[in-house]
Amino acid sequence: MWALNAGGYRRLGAVGSVAAAVGGWVAGTLPARDPWGLWVPHGSVVTVAGEVLAYVGLTLLVVAWWRYGRTGASTRDTLVTLAWWATPLALAPPLYSADVYSYIAQGAMVLEGHDVYSAGPSVLDPAGLGGDAAASVGGNWTDSPAPYGPFFLILARGVTWVTGGTIVPAVLGMRLIAVGALVLIVWALRHLARERGTSESGALWLGALNPLLLTHVIGGMHNDGLMIGLMLAGVVLALRGRWIAGGALVGLAMMVKSPAAMALLFIGVFVGRAATGPFVRRVARGVAPGLVAVAVAVAAALLGGTGFGWLRTQSVAGTIHTALSATSDLGLGLGELLHLLVGTDPGPVKTAVQNLGLGVALVLIACLAWRSARGREGSARGAAAARAVEPAHASDTAHASDTVRASDSVRALDPVHALGLALLALVALSPMVQPWYLLWGVTVIAATAPYGRTATVLTVLSAALVYETHPSGATPWYGFVLVGVVCVIGTLLVRRDSNAPGEVRVPGDELAVGAHRT
Question: Is the pLDDT of residue 513 over 60?
């Protein structure tokens, strides 16, 4: 197969990013009204051409990312590549989602004194502050209360106040937050990789250069990026003994989106396990970061003026069916089947299956926490080192298996790695799953085990799930077909690479190979 060096794939990905951004100017998630006349429809023929250009560009970006991961590029080169690939998307209209319009409209609601946790953007005056954004909100969210925490609404209110709610500057203001989130993710990935003894460049390749993150955090401006960045930064500080600051950052992350609270469990495990003294003292030390996070959350709710209504809106997203949710699909199918057979209402059946899925997720998370709590920090670091040298090719299998068995013998599980696995379990069994939710766990796994089997699966899924969503934010049927096709192609490529003679290089491979040889 043809091959380029790291610079060649950087340029190829940049061409793809530019093409996706240019296509987005006519086929992206354009607003219903733009007073500036910049983001407006251009007719069906131009729109179709823009769609084709955007999909071609996305494909070039995915191919470049996949191949770049085998060039052994340095951390500096990877950071330069990230800047090249992210910049075009940062200058485009909203892509792959209309959520940013909800953010702006909710910011306007807070400014005007509406309760964002009991009403949706439809309460805004169409001709008033945030009216254009409210008109552009996706159909499912027009009358839905906000499921986001007070800290994010404070930021959205600030953007709306500064820009007056005018579409273009307001969107760009939200994109500045998304870019800031990306910078925070990069910082946290590099430091987490150092703490856990893995490759910085490998962590950046899977966790930041990932097309799924670029398209949905930079292009789509999903606030998941901010949640991830704050959560990872909190974990970094906690690992360095600054658990008060770490707990505070995780508290802010929770006040963006609630899944960040998962980090508190594993930070508590780490802090408690590292503490000395009686059992009660170790438990108290482990609980302390959570208390700090709760205090920050309460302060954000009170200072933001939005109150604690977010506690009752966490189930709002679950009322919207998404085809990527296995429990929702299974519940819906089972409910419809029982309706045909015995005439029961399918709704309660679907809800029961969704709740069962969440129950299973909680059990898995508890098992991960228990296993990581049983080990010692030295054992956990040994397990992390073992994952860092998991075989990238078949010739390393025997040695890596011996190393993994040695780490398993002490039954240690790195709490940070366990956090990534727990977030993946939560996503897999959640009643609502969007493609970018995968990033919750991907970014953590990228820093703890960028070469392992889990990371390989996440790489394939990342390359595939970017196709699920149309640049306009819709989810067409052929998007799921493309996801399936890319999954098959990615699996075949992984199997081919694992069976190929010689070494398959990945970012920062020098670190992993050096660790392996020692």
Answer: no
